Amino acid sequence: MKHLGGKTLPCALILMLCLVFSAGRGLAGDSKNSGKNVLAKVWQTEKVFSVPESVLYHKSDKTLYVSNINGAPTEKNGKGFISKLSLEGRVLKLRWAEGLNAPKGAAIFGNSFFVSDIDRLVEIDMKTGKIRRAYPAKDARFLNDVAVDDQGRVYVSDMDEKNSAIYRLADGRMDVWLKGPDIRNPNGLHMEEKKLMVGNSGDMTIKAVRLSDKVVTEFASAGQKIDGLRPDGKGNYIVSDWDGRTTLVMATGETRPLLDTVAEKINSADLEYIPGAGLLLIPTFFDNRVVAYRFQ
Fold it and tell me: By CB atoms within 10 Å of each CB, which of 62, 104, 109, 169 scores lowest?
């Protein structure tokens, strides 16, 4: 028995009140994560890749392309390659394209596959997997993600702190397109109509850059370093932190953690998301796998 305000309450009633109070506290404490999206693992490959850094979905052939660094991220060893993977996780061709150094982000336009390669952008023939041409990026140190607009102009981020720039390939020329205080250690890129979305690792924000005049506005704070950047089809973005975090970021500034594999020392590199299939693909870098999750 317990006394409250001079009255005696039964133990059962006290216990019920405590449970209700605790539940209320839990709901309030978790309010930012209410309605939280949950990832369900669909499949994972064997450890057949060699430092997979990015996954890119090609809608036309319903195929996933995986960039394999195959060495250190800045090592020019000529051993880097691109793999082809089915949507069910079956390796279609482990070494579809070879002769790269440390390939990372990629984008496709027409019959061309563009991939960053430390200090150059490499164009690969989609039909043959052969390198067509390489475009050097002057002063680039750590080219990372790639995006392409509807005119076929290719944008590449250099996340190196000493350069911090976005390059653009247009009319066969590779030049610095954007640089300045708003762009700090840019990594993940995603092209939308009339604007380029940039994952800014330097200040942990997602920026929107208007293509017409390069005006930069902030979409939201991600609250973490940003590697991969993909829209969820509902006005929000899924971002990955290389250390092993994957998060949903909304325009309201709300963030919802989706996956955390930091303790397991499993990285979350340049991810891909296919809204129509609700499929989230995460390359695990040093863990040498690609893992697919259901996310809706």
Answer: 62
User: Burial letters for 196-232: b for 16+ Cβ neighbours within 10 Å, e otherwise?
Assistant: bbbbbbbebbbbbbebeeeebeebbebbbbbbbbbeb
Residue 5 has pLDDT above 90, yes or no: no
Question: What type of residue is 55?
Answer: V
CATH number at 56 reads: 2.120.10.30
Element (H, E) at 54: strand 52-58
- Structurally, the chain folds into a number of domains equal to 1
Q: Which of 224, 278, 210, 233 is nearest to 256 (CA)?
A: 224
pLDDT tens-digit map of 64-120: 999 999 999 999 999 999 999 999 999 999 999 999 999 999 999 999 999 999 999
- Give the model's pLDDT for residue 66: 99
Q: State percent of the chain over pLDDT 90.
A: 86
Distance CA 268, CA 282 (A): 6
- Displacement of CA 274 from its chain's centroid (Å): 12
Distances (CA, A) of 202 to 185, 186, 187, 207: 5, 7, 9, 11
Q: Residue 99: name the closest of 77, 75, 128, 73 by CA.
A: 77
Whole-angstrom Cα distance, residue 75 to residue 80? 10
Residue 12 falls within a domain, yes or no? no
Query: What is the widest separation between alpha-carbon atoms in the chain?
Result: 87
Residue 8 lies in a domain: no
**Domain ranges, residue 124:** 39-294
User: What are the tens digits of pLDDT across the range 250-261?
Assistant: 989 899 999 999
- Is residue 30 included in any domain, yes or no? no
Q: Looking at the domain assignment, is residue 24 inside a domain?
A: no
